[in-house]
Amino acid sequence: MTVRSRKEDAWCMIDVEDTGCGIPAEVLPKIFDPFFTTKGQGEGTGLGLSVSLGIVQRHGGEIQVHSHVGKGTVFTVRLPALHVRMPVGKDV
Fold it and tell me: pTM for the complete prediction?
């Protein structure tokens, strides 16, 4: 697994990439749906990506995914960069 971060214009970008089996094209549109899982019964709730997407969206961001079967998947989290100005001459 590889994790990269960068800033692009007014956005903070975080890539999480694996070299796993990839996500089949017919499954890809469903992966952020609540309770969707490809795991067997009792092995997962199917909430992880749905909850993650909700958190990112509440912060004004988005998640993109690119996957190639047999090669791996890249999830890119895009969040607005926030500039915080500290008051001059004050202890914080």
Answer: 0.82
User: What is the per-residue DSSP string for 42-84?
Assistant: TS--S-HHHHHHHHHHHTT-EEEEEEETTTEEEEEEEEE----
Please give the single-letter amino acid code of residue 50: S
Per residue in 28-62, pLDDT (tens digit) is 999 999 999 888 888 878 889 999 999 999 999 99
**Longest CA pairwise span in the chain (Å):** 59
Domains of the chain with bracketed CATH: 2-80 (3.30.565.10)
Residue 50 CB coordination number (10 Å): 15
